[in-house]
C-alpha cells in the first residue's frame, strides 16, 4: 500500500497542476513519471501513449492508470485515476457558485496564464522526448511526417493513420535502431484482460436496454455516459460535443448550463472528461446531485480504463517479436510528432496572443528546464504575470 500511496500523491499533484488538455497532460506525465520519479523510461511512456492513442477513451487518464498499475498494481491504478481526476471533478461539481466570477477580466487573465503554463510544459516534453525517441534520421523523419499529417489534416482520425505509417516506417527503416522498444512491463494476467474486455462489451450492450426500461433514471444517465466514453476517439474535445447532442435535446440539461460547464472545463486542471461531474450534478432528472455526479464520472471513465487493461495485455505480447519491436520504434517517433503538432495547435495558437505571452512562456520553460522549478511555482508565476500583463498592458 506504500507504493499506492506514492502513486496517489504523485497523481494528485498532477491533477492539481496539469492544465492544457490531453496532449499537454502527457508533457506533465513525462516530467513527473520519467524525469523526476523515474518510474518508467521515456521509451516505455512512449509505448503507453501510442497504445492509448489508438484506443477509445481519455488517453491521458488511460496512460496515468497504466502507470499506476505498473508501479503499484491494481491499488496503484485506482489511486492514479482518483488522484488525477478528483480535483477537476470536485471543482466542476462546485462550478455553479463560481460561474459568474469566471467571466470577470481578472479571472480570465488568470485562466490565460494557465494556458501559458501548458506551452512551457509541452515544449519541454517535446524536447526531452525527441532527444530520446528520435536519435537518428529515420525516427526524426517519422516524427516530422506525423506532425505534418496532423497539422495539415486537423482530424482526430488522422492520429490512427499517422500511427500506422509510423509503425510501417519503423518496420522498414528502424530495424537497426539503437532504441530498445520492448514490451510493456505491466503484469496483467490474460484472464484479467479478457474479463475487462468482456465487461466492456457487456455494459455497452446491457446499459442501453436498462435505460430503455427505466428512462430518466440513474441507469439511463449511466448508459448515456458509458456510451460516450466507450465509442469516442480523440479525447475530451471530441466527447463534449457528443455529450451535448445526447443531453440537451433529451432534456437532461439546458444548452446554457451545458455551455457554462464546457467553458469552466477549459479552466480547471486534469482531464476534460471530468466535466461529467458537472453534467451529472446539473441534470434535470437527477434528485441527488452528488450521486448524479458520481455516476456520470464513473461511467464515462470506466470503458476507457477497461479497454486500456485489455489493450496493454495484448500490446505486451505483440512487442516481444523483433519486427514488431522495430515498428514500436516508429510508433514512438510518431508520438513525438503528435506532441510537436499539439504544441503548435491547439496549445500555442490558443495561448499566445502577444509578445508578453511569448516572454512569459519562455520564462516558464526556463524555470522548468534550467532551474528545475516545481510545477506549482511555475503555475503561480504564469498566473501572476498574465494578470499583471492584462491589467497594465
Q: Helices and strands in order, then pairings?
A:
Layout: H1 2-17, H2 22-36, H3 42-53, H4 59-93, H5 99-102, H6 105-133, H7 137-153, H8 158-173, H9 190-213, H10 218-231, H11 236-247, H12 255-265, H13 275-282, H14 289-318, H15 322-351, H16 355-369, H17 375-392
Helix pairs in contact: 1-4, 2-4, 2-6, 2-15, 3-4, 3-15, 4-13, 4-14, 6-15, 6-16, 6-17, 7-8, 7-15, 8-15, 9-10, 9-14, 10-11, 10-14, 12-13, 13-14, 16-17
Summarize the structure.
The chain is mainly α and 393 residues long. 78% of the residues lie in helices and 0% in strands.
Secondary structure class reads: mainly alpha
How would you state the average pLDDT, rounded?
85
* Gross geometry: globular
Number of strands: 0
Helical fraction: over 70%
Largest sheet: none
Output the helix-strand order: HHHHHHHHHHHHHHHHH
Q: Which parts are unreliable, with pLDDT below 50 for 5 consecutive residues or more?
A: none
Structure annotation, total helices: 17
Distance between the termini: 51 Å
Tell me what portion of residues adopts beta-strand conformation.
under 5%
- Structurally, the number of domains stands at 1
Task: Tell me the Rg in angstroms.
Answer: 21 Å
Detailed description of the structure:
By secondary structure, the protein is mostly helical. It has one domain (1-93, 104-393). Helices cover 78% and strands 0% of the residues. The protein is built from 17 helices and no strands. It has helices spanning 2-17, 22-36, 42-53, 59-93, 99-102, 105-133, 137-153, 158-173, 190-213, 218-231, 236-247, 255-265, 275-282, 289-318, 322-351, 355-369, 375-392. Helix 2 (22-36) packs across helix 4 (59-93).
Amino acid at each position: 500500500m506504500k507504493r499506492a500511496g506514492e502513486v496517489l500523491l504523485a497523481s494528485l499533484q498532477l491533477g492539481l497542476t496539469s492544465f492544457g488538455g490531453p496532449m499537454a497532460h502527457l508533457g506533465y506525465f513525462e516530467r513527473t513519471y520519467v524525469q523526476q520519479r523515474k518510474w518508467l523510461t521515456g521509451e516505455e511512456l512512449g509505448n503507453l501513449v501510442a497504445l492509448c492513442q489508438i484506443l477509445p477513451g481519455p488517453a491521458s487518464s488511460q496512460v496515468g492508470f497504466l502507470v499506476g498499475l505498473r508501479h503499484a498494481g491494481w491499488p496503484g491504478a485506482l489511486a492514479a485515476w482518483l488522484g488525477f481526476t478528483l480535483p477537476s471533478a470536485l471543482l466542476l461539481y462546485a462550478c455553479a457558485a463560481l460561474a459568474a466570477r469566471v467571466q470577470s477580466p481578472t479571472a480570465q487573465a488568470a485562466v490565460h496564464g494557465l494556458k501559458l503554463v501548458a506551452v512551457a510544459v509541452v515544449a519541454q516534453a517535446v524536447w526531452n522526448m525527441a532527444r530520446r525517441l528520435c536519435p537518428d534520421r529515420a525516427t526524426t523523419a517519422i516524427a516530422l511526417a506525423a506532425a505534418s499529417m496532423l497539422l495539415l489534416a486537423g482530424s482526430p482520425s488522422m492520429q490512427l493513420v499517422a500511427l500506422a505509417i509510423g509503425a510501417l516506417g519503423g518496420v522498414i527503416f528502424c530495424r537497426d535502431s539503437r532504441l530498445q522498444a520492448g514490451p510493456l512491463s505491466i503484469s496483467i494476467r490474460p484472464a484479467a484482460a479478457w474479463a475487462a474486455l468482456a465487461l466492456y462489451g457487456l455494459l455497452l450492450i446491457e446499459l442501453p436496454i436498462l435505460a430503455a426500461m427505466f428512462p430518466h433514471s440513474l441507469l439511463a444517465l449511466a448508459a448515456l455516459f458509458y456510451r460516450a466514453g466507450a465509442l469516442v476517439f480523440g479525447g475530451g474535445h471530441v466527447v463534449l460535443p457528443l455529450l451535448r447532442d445526447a443531453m440537451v435535446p433529451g432534456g437532461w440539461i439546458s444548452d446554457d448550463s451545458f455551455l457554462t460547464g464546457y467553458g469552466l472545463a477549459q479552466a480547471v486542471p486534469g482531464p476534460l472528461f471530468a466535466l461529467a461531474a458537472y453534467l451529472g450534478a446539473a441534470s434535470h432528472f437527477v434528485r441527488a446531485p452528488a450521486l448524479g455526479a458520481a455516476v456520470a464520472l464513473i461511467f464515462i471513465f470506466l470503458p476507457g480504463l477497461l479497454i486500456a487493461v485489455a489493450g496493454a495485455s495484448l500490446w505486451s505480447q505483440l512487442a516481444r517479436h523483433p519486427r514488431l519491436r522495430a515498428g514500436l520504434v516508429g510508433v514512438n517517433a510518431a508520438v513525438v510528432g503528435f506532441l510537436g503538432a499539439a504544441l503548435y495547435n491547439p496549445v500555442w495558437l490558443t495561448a499566445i496572443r502577444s509578445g508578453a505571452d511569448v516572454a512569459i512562456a519562455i520564462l516558464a520553460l526556463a524555470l522548468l528546464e534550467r532551474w528545475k522549478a516545481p510545477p506549482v511555482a511555475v503555475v503561480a508565476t504564469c498566473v501572476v504575470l498574465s494578470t499583471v500583463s492584462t491589467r497594465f498592458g
